[in-house]
């Protein structure tokens, strides 16, 4: 692990900035595609265990912050080529994260969104495993995201079936 004295070095700060921008872009894409998501969500038939629409904003804000910090911790965990694979998996799942909202809300393709989220979960599990090898705190920071995404997969499936 990198010494704490390296946290404020320009390279480390650049890595943190890139990590924050990456999750902001993913969140922004989702936000653009979901400008009417709360209304669309309330119009859908949902299972009894579906959370209220207001919960998604605070939940995702928290998860995106944890994700950015986790990626930053892995980025600075060792000499550059070492964390590359872990960060590539992270980037791939982040792209899928950004794509889910346009699929589910923007296009209304609930079945395709379910399949896409299934692939995202596989990549996310691999990302957690790879992050664990570099920084256990980083891996632990992704566990709430993994749990939420697993719940989202179940909710996506239920909503898809109820509104098919």
From TrEMBL:
GO BP term, pick one: tetrapyrrole metabolic process
- Where, subcellularly, is it found? Membrane
Cite the Pfam families for this sequence: TspO_MBR
Question: Keywords of this protein's UniProt record, alphabetized?
Answer: Membrane, Transmembrane, Transmembrane helix
Q: Where are the transmembrane segments?
A: 12-33, 53-75, 87-105, 111-132, 139-160
UniProt GO cellular component terms: membrane
Give the membrane topology, semicolon-separated if more than one: Multi-pass membrane protein
Query: Keyword Calcium on this protein?
Result: no
Q: Does Transmembrane show up as a keyword for this record?
A: yes
Q: Which domain of life is it from?
A: Bacteria
Q: What is its main location?
A: membrane
Q: Which family does it belong to?
A: Belongs to the TspO/BZRP family.
Q: What is this protein called?
A: Putative TspO/MBR-related protein
> Which lineage ranks, top first, belong to the organism behind this chain?
Bacteria, Bacillati, Actinomycetota, Actinomycetes, Mycobacteriales
């Amino acid at each position: 692990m990198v010494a704490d004295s390296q946290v404020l070095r320009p390279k480390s700060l650049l890595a943190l900035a890139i990590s924050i921008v990456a999750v902001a872009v993913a969140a922004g894409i989702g936000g653009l595609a979901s400008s009417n998501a709360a209304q669309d969500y309330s119009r859908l038939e949902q299972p009894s265990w579906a959370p209220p629409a207001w919960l998604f904003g605070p939940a995702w804000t928290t998860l995106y912050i944890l994700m950015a910090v986790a990626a930053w911790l892995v980025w600075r965990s060792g000499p550059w080529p070492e964390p590359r694979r872990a960060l590539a998996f992270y980037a791939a799942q982040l792209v899928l994260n950004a794509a889910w909202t346009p699929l589910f809300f923007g296009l209304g393709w609930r079945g395709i969104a379910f399949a896409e989220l299934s692939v995202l979960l596989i990549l996310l599990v691999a990302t957690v495993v790879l992050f664990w090898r570099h920084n256990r705190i980083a891996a632990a920071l992704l566990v709430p995201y993994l749990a939420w995404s697993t719940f989202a997969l179940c909710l996506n499936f239920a909503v898809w079936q109820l509104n098919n």
